[in-house]
Each structure stands twice: as C-alpha cells, then as structure tokens.
Amino acid sequence: MTTKSANSGSGMTQSRRPARLSLADWMPKLVMAPTVITTIVCIYGYMIWTAVLSFTNSRMLPTYKFVGTAQYERLFENDRWLVALSNLGVFGGLFILICLFLGVMLAIFLDQKIRAEGAIRTIYLYPMAISFIVTGTAWKWLLNPTNGIEKMMIEFGFEDFKFNWLSDPDMVVYCLVIAAVWQASGFVMALFLAGLRGVDGEMIKAAQLDGAGIFTTYRRIILPSLKPVFFSALVILSHIAIKSFDLVASLTNGGPGYSSDLPANFMYTHAFNRSQMGLGSASAMVMLGCVLAILIPYLYSELRGERHE
Amino acid sequence: MKKIAFGLSTVALSLAAATAQAGEVEVLHWWTSGGEAAAINVLKQEMTDAGHTWKDFAVAGGGGESAMTVLKSRAIAGNPPASAQIKGPTIQEWGDLGFLTNLDDVAAKGEWDTVLPSVVSSVMKYDGHYVAAPVNVHRVNWMWANPEVFKKAGASIPTTWDQFITEAKKIKAAGFTPLAHGGQAWQDATLFEAIALAKGSDFYNSAFLSMSDETLRSQDMIDVFSTFKAMREFVDPGFSGRDWNIATSMVINGEAAMQIMGDWAKGEFTAAGKKAGIDYVCYPAPGTSGQFTFNIDSLAMFEVDSEDAQMAQQDLARLILEPTFQETFNLNKGSIPARLNMPRDKFDTCAHASMDAFLASASTGDLVPSYAHGMAVNSMVQGAINDVVTNFFNSESMTAEEAVDKLARAVKAANM
Amino acid sequence: MSNIAKRQTSTLDKVLRVALYVTLLAMAFVYLAPFIVMLLTSLKDVEEIRTGTLLSLPASLDFYAWGKAWSGACTGGTCEGIAPYFLNSFQIVIPAVLISTIVGALNGYVISHWKFRGSNFFFAALLLGCFIPFQVILLPMAKTLGWLGVANTTSGLVFVHVVYGVAFTTLFFRNFYQAVPAELVKAARLDGAGFFTIFYRIILPISTPIIVVTIIWQFTQIWNDFLFGVAFSGFDTQPVTVALNNLVNTSFGGKEYNVDMAAAIIAALPTLLVYVLAGKYFVRGLTAGAVKG
Predict the structure, then answer these.
(1) Where mainly located (chain B) (predicted)?
(2) Least CB–CB distance from C74: residue in B37, B54, B271
(3) What CATH code would you report for B142-294+373-414?
(4) Each residue of A22-31: b (16+ CB within 10 Å) or e?
(5) Least confident window among A265-274, A284-293, C280-289
(6) What is the pTM of this model?
(7) CA-to-CA distance for B364 and B377, rounded, in angstroms?
(8) Interface check B380 vs A, CB under 8 A
C-alpha cells in the first residue's frame, strides 16, 4: 500500500494531469447529475409537497387552504388510523422477528454440507420472486375457512378443526404475518447464508482448538460476526413491512371491517378514494417519520464506517 | 400483434375521420362482473357500429377504488380518459375542479330534460349544465331469495326485520346459510342501509342526507345497529372479503336462502340462465316495500383536446340515452332505464316492480338516494360511516350504543 | 465453515444429522405447499375444486384453465387473457432494468472511487429514497409525467421505475465497489486512464456477481410492481400484475379459481425462472459484497 501511494508523486504522470484534470473532475459529477436531479425533484420535491399538503384541507385534488395541524389532530382521533398503526406494530414486529429467526436458523442448517443444498435453497428462496398480488391471491384461498386448510383438515378426519383467522378481526393480522413471512424469510436466509460463507475460517478453527462446542462457536463467534448482515436484513425487512400495501390489498383488503388495515393502505384509501388528500398526506408524513427513525441509525453507521476507512 | 392491429386501425380511423367524424373514446370503468360486462359490451358494440373506436379501460376491484386512482392520476397528468364511470356527488366534485365537458347540445337534441326524471337529471348536471349521461337506475333495497331453499326449510319470505330473524333461524336449523353476504365494506353498508330504511324515509333522510346529530344518536339508530348485528349469525364463516356476485351465486346454487343486494344481482341470475319468479324471487328488503333507494350509474365526460375525440364523446352521450341502448343495457345489468316511458314488455317482473316503485315513491317522498353507493353524501362522509358500520359488524365486543356514538363523531369529523 | 461440519462419528451426531435433514425437508414442504396447491388447483375443473381438498390430485390433466388465463379470460369488455399484458410487462421491465443497472453501476463507481464534495451526503440522501412510501408520490409523479409528455405510456413507466430503482442499484454497486482497493483505481488514474476507461477495463470485468444480483433484484421488483403499473399505465400499456388483479377480481357467475391460479402462476413464471436458474449466482453475488453493512 505504501509503495502505491508513494507513486502518486511520480513526475512522469504528473505532467499529463492538468490537461485531464478538468474532464476527470467533471465526469463523475456529470454521470451523477441525472440521479441527483431526479432525487431532488422526485423524492425530496415530492416529500416537501406532501408535507405542505398535510397542512391544507386538500380534498379530491390538492388545494392550498392552510388549516394548521388540524389534519394531524383528526388523524390521531381516527380509530381506523390507530388500528392501522397498532397493526403495523404487531405485523412489523412479528414479521421481522420471525423472518430473522427462520432466516438464521435455515441458513445455519443449510451450511452443514447438506446434500442438494442448491435445490433446497432455491425452494426457500423462490417465494421472494412472486409478487404480493400473487401471494395474496394464493394465501387468501389457502386461509379461506370454507375451501382452504380448514376444509382439508376436516376431510382428513379432524372434524373439529377450526382455522378461520381470515374472518376473525382479532386474528386476521396474523394471516398477513404468515403470508409475508412465507414470502420474505427465504431471502433473509440467503443473506445469512452469504454472510456465513464469508466468515473467517481461521477464527472458527481457533475457537474449536480451544475446545468450544458447535453451539458455543455459533453463539459466541459466528453470529456476532454477522452483525452487519443482521443490520442489512433488518433494514430490508422494515422497508418491506412499512411498505406492505399490495399484500393487504390482495389478501384482506383491510377487512374484516378495517381490522387488518396498515398505514400505507389507510393513506391510499383516504387520499385516493375518500377525497381526503390532506388527511392522507398527514398520515404519509407520519409514515415518513417512522422510516426516518429506522433509517437514521443505519445511515449514521454507514457514514461513520466511511470515516474509519 | 395487438399493437400492430391497433396501429393500423388508428390509421384507418384517422382516414375515416376526415369524412365521417369518427373518433376514439377511452372509457374507464369497473363494470367487470358477468352481467355488467355483458351490459357494457352493448355500448361498445353500438359505438363500434357508429364507426368509432372504443378503448376499453377496465380496472377491476374494490368497488372502483383502483379505477378512481387511475382517473386522478390521469386527470392530474392532463390526460384524462374521454369518459369515466363516476356518479352522484362525485360528479359535482369533478365539476368543481373544471374537468368535465358540456353536453348541453346533445341533451337539447335528445330532449334529456323531458325524457329524464328530474331526480336523475339533477344528478347529471353540474352548475345547470349536463356533464354526464345516465345509463340506468338501480334499486338497492332488494332481497333476492331462492324459493327452493325456503320450501326445504319450511320458512316463509319475511316482510319485516323481526320476521327475517325468525325465518332465518329456521333456515339455519335446516342446514342452509340464511343470508348470502360478502364481508366488504360496501356490502355491509348495503345491508345496513336497508335496515335503516325500514325505520322510514324521514329517518333515513335525516340520518344520511341532513346528517342530523340528533337522529344519528337516536334510539331508532341504536335499534338499527342491533338488528344489523343480529344478521352476523346468519352469514357463513367464509363471508370475509367475498365478492357480491359470489354471494349471489350462493343463492343461485341453493347454498343460501337470501341476499340483500341491489338489482344488479339480477344480472347474475340472468347470466346463470335463471328465471325470475320461478328459480328465484325478488322482494323489497324487509319493511321497505313502498320505498326505493336509488343508485344511478353514469358516464361523465371529460374535457378532451382532439376534435375527433370530442365528436365521438358527444356521440357516446347521445347513444347512451337512445331507447335501444337503455333497454339492452338494463336487461343485462338488472336495473331499469334512466329514461321514462320506455316499452317495458321485455323486462321481467322484478324490473316491472322496480319501475312502478320508482314512479310511485317519487310522489310519496319515499324515493331516497343510496348512501352506501355514494348517491347521498360525498366520499368522505360515506367512508366515515362505512368505517363504523363495517367495524361494528365484525367486532365482537362493540355495543350498538357505542357504535351510534362513534357514528355521530365520525360524521362530524368527516364534515370538517 | 467446513470445519464445523467436520465428519464426526458419534451416534449423537448421526441422530442430529437425521433431525437436520428432516427439519430442512419439512420446511421445504412448507415453502413449496402454496405453490403446489396453486398448481394442482389450476389443473382441476371448478367442480373438482369444490368437492376435493387442497392437495387432492386432479382427476385428469386439464390445461383448460391455463389456456383461458393466457388468452381467453375476460375483464370488462375485452377477452384476451393476460397474454398481451405479459408483453407489456416485458416492454417495461427490460429497458427499466438495463437503465437502472447501468446508472446504478456508474453511481456506485463514482461514490466509491471518484468522491466529490457532497457525494457521500448525496448517497445518504439517495438511500432515504429507497424508503419513501410510494403512495405519496403518485399524484406529483403523474403531474411530472404529464409535463414530460409521457403520461400513460411505456416510456413513462420505465422512467418511474428507473427513478425509484436507482436508489437500490446504487446501494448494491456502491457496497460492492467499496471492496475494490482504491489504490487500483488511483494507479490507473496516474497512468492516464480516464473515468470510463477505468470503469471498462478495471471495474466492469470484476462486477459480474453484483450485476447478477442487481438484475435479479430489479427484475423482480419491477415485474412485480402493481401500484405504479395501475396508476401510470394507459389502457394498452398495463403490466401483467394489473391484468392479474383485474382477472381475479372479475367473475362471471361462479369464481373460476383454476383460471385465477393459472393466471397467477403465469404472471409469476418469468421471475420464478430467474430465481430458479440464477439463484446460485444470486447467493454468490450476495456473498461477494452486497450484504456488507
């Protein structure tokens, strides 16, 4: 490394530099320019616009009559919004925890020199390839009390078998969890498998020489070294949880009643179907707040990592 | 292939347009179930026969929720479809925003003011000008029944809600589903509205048109909610999220005895080859025999730039009001024509009953707009009421008193 | 890792090993079951679906539902199945994936090796873009597309997918290129190689794993998108997910679950194929750097 950095002072290349400097200086910025522009306009511009709307009484389409924080007050007096928020808590929490648990477990199991690993891995991973619309359609059918799993179990001889979560307002949110976990846990498994493959073998050898058993090795040495993978998985999963819109739309459409509504669906319904643009915008801003709460620690660790390099 | 064919036909049309003023209309709608699709195909055929191109933009699902998103997105992009399926107070909202085009010329030629009943024409006008064309009038407070199931269960058709409960218990004991129902907010609302209507048209109007706080909190409203909740035990366990026409097919197949649903359900019976009065019977929803909750479907016309498209659009509006279209469309859809004084020999007994009730109720003040179908209140209030209604129906713990309190508060909040 | 699974011959280990296989296979069944049910259902006729159970085998192989889903099922006034929309999806997905991958690669290259003032800050800001709830942008984006004159066209949809896909692709490439020694690039610059020369000669040849990951990710995301597809498409540019949603929400008399399921499988086939065929490279690519925190 030191030899290379010493090279930077070599006279031969220096003489050519001034002529290329301007182009070389501009090229990276030029290349980034389209992304910069679209990001400023299509992400931050729109965000600000939404923020502005959340302080107006916009109904069907945007208007600019400002009403202060009235929309936010209405939002938090709205039963449906509170249900949507608490659903997000239950759904998001369970979804992330179960996915992480299953993902780690399956990755460790698969990493034991399993025969046909490729095939099994593909089977675990394939649901990620399917859209939430398809997942919702399929699971709606599996979970339907009159023709799905319940009927199958009854015909297998379990006459009293009951599985009607899809029509039970208290349980329906777990249906969302089941379908979402089915879809995303394989992907988490792939992330961890990739992480496990990257763990330093020497470290493990050393631990085993010290007499550590297989479980201790995993608990003490391997899993802690996968911290960045945990973090990536956590970010991707929270991202999926907060944006779960298609799944609700196709699996339950918010029902029974509005017991399986999530904030994204609340926002969509109010902004687009109920002509409550202002209220919808306010709910979007609250969602954005949740996103920031998750993202800022991530960004902080990203940029801090940078400085260490 | 489709692209090329389409390209060619556009070329062909633009050539034809020079002589015959043919154009294309893009029609955004969510008429996707059996009877509805058959009905819209009639209009498509007539437009094609008139030399125009029909661009069918169907967006299914959720009672037009996706379709409304598409419409807003297109309108705000400055590229609205020529025509879209919107109705009731929503027409006024779009009119306020200046998106709708003026149909007064066509209306004058077709004498819309005389052929349309005033309750219909007033909905089609924005600021005194026609902006939409009505395709039908639906009666929402219908009850569809399978007489075979009633016979097997030894039950009789109920005419009051109390009787409904007694008879439904018999039907349930006989092993049938008494009430075919789909657990979607608007279907819950349709059932709820029918029960509320049985308390009288004055009560109904005071609650859902004037939104009087007093009426919303009244003992009558508590009774309505209690009766509504009683229906919960008469639906089958798989009702959650079921589409209305799947519920209708339960009545058709003899799995269920009754369905409270607007007359579009008849389209499903017709599509299944069933005969009114024999395979199925229609009665007004219990306790609402002289009353008529109306739901008018209409196509609103949007401002479009091209002259050809405008011509095609005006032609579309004209065709919609033609007696031939009104007849065929409504025979398929199960509704009655929006036009008055149409020959009625091709319609069945249910439609005749509907037509008579429409005229009779108009003079007694029993002709009321359907809140559940967005004819009475704007989408905000409607949505707020629906939230309370559907949540109450599915909740095990909420009492009717609590529901009434929530309803009154939700309506107030939505009117802010 | 091989050390952990080192052959040891105690009986306990053998028992554990059997238990391991049983667990893995049981889980594989759980993951496969919904797909098997969909497949079986799509091959039955409506009557069999009503009378049979989820896992009962069809009486005969009947591809009626597949044919109907592909080219005969009706939505509203048109009865063309989902075939035309399938092509629409490809017309959207292919350019959108290519453009967003290329842009992401260049961005990642700049952010990791041609840093300029604010490039890191910009990267953080871009990352935030991955997380914006997409419902928020529907209306302003519609306005923008109208202003650009591409509302309700395929190009418009490609534009939207590129704009919101670039955040993820940039993230992938940036994480991967971070691992490329800075000295390699510096040395090349000193040798007089320009921005693009270094990219072609040094960066691109080692990028295969991450390109595969990015393409798979983007392909899946864009193919499966519903929200943008429904909001920004015209009547003849709707992608297959919108058509599928139309189809399963449309019913004539009884619900034809077999057609719904066949359509769902058809709509999912391209992404399924990509995962099955390229899944190996996907995990390999992830190992190569995409998961670095």
Answers:
(1) periplasm
(2) B37
(3) 3.40.190.10
(4) eebeebbeeb
(5) C280-289
(6) 0.85
(7) 22
(8) yes
